[in-house]
# Entry
Amino acid sequence: MTTRRDFSKTAIAATALSYGRILGANDKIRMGYIGLGNRGDQVHDAFLEHGDQVTAAVCDLREDYMDFAIKKSRATPKKYKEYKKLLDDKEIDAVVVATPDHWHALMFVDACRAGKDVYCEKPLSLTIWEGRRMVQVAGETKRVTQVGIHRRSVQSLRDAAEFVRNGGIGHVTVAKGYHVQNEWPNGIGNAPNAMPPNEAMWDAWLGPAPKVPYNLNRTFYNFRWFYDYSGGQITNFGVHYMDMIRMCLGKDAPKSVVAMGGKYAIKDNREIPDTCEVLWDYGDTLVVFTQYNANGAPTNARNSELEIRGTKGTMYLQSGRWEVVPEKTTEVLFGQRTPVDRGREKGYGPSKKPAMEPKTAGDGFAETYPHARNFLDCVKSRGKCNCDVLDGHLSTSACILGHIALRTKSYLEWDAKAEKITNNPAANKLLSYQYRAPYKLG
# Structure
């Protein structure tokens, strides 16, 4: 007989999944995909690697994107032009949101309210206020969430972070991330404002963002060069680096941030800089993001995208691979020289004793499919994903603060608990923005 206790356990498990549907270990998770261009197509591919999920529905403003996704799928997904209709589909267990950044918060919150688990592409949000609301709603609705900062699920990089946190390279004083590519001289070009090919589609694409004339550069991949839809490369690439650095440091939020940069060389109609540097103070570690988009020369001796400098060694990371180069030391301390040792000093430099053993691990590209695998596993187990909405919010927020510092040309002090800038009231206005009517974040 079923006891009251057993019945209660079953009921609790049922409410944890979409519309009471209970997933067993062998059940297929029915996925809905919102946004299928570029990165959305790549994330779809990552989920297709796994046999315990099925593409049950697709949604995009473009028919050709949906048709392309359907051809890849093992089933025949439903097609939706409006994402809310997909969310109303009671057969959908979980959704992927891979739209432009300015749509993430609305779709994420609506999906949680509809009882769907959510995989949301990075960066999590356009503003810090949106990100905090997403964290709150995910908690209220008890949804499983994963933010598409996929390096969190690459085992070699998880090992790298653990190695640093455990003191493998000593105390980390500086951690740097680089986004380097030469876009000079034309960049994204100077597409003129024009009549939209489809006025209704353009209005729907803008969504909560301000109504502006149609410009080809504001659509597709290039939306990332405009502040109405993105934080630029500081949030686009920077959030990958910031998240990896946070994993290595074991820290949540910076104490302050400052940034400088501008459009120094490229004459296109972008709003984001072609050159900038952002510096965050994490208390006892300086974190730096460098964007050189008018020069493609190597970043450092290893030409890596990340370097983490400790007192015993430096870790260089490139995609899924990492290497540690030891510092070298003598045995005599500063200020303790004997007549025999005079002229010798404690310090790190060439031709000295290594402070640690060199180390190399990982290979190849940091793939997305392990991140998809982790999400699917957690949908079934109701466990915490490798990069849940809170972790995604903390990494995204730090990057958003960086681009606010750049736009306001100021040094910003940050109260992480209140999520407020304490020394610049005007800069706090950029922590949120007024949605275009009739859009509201629930």
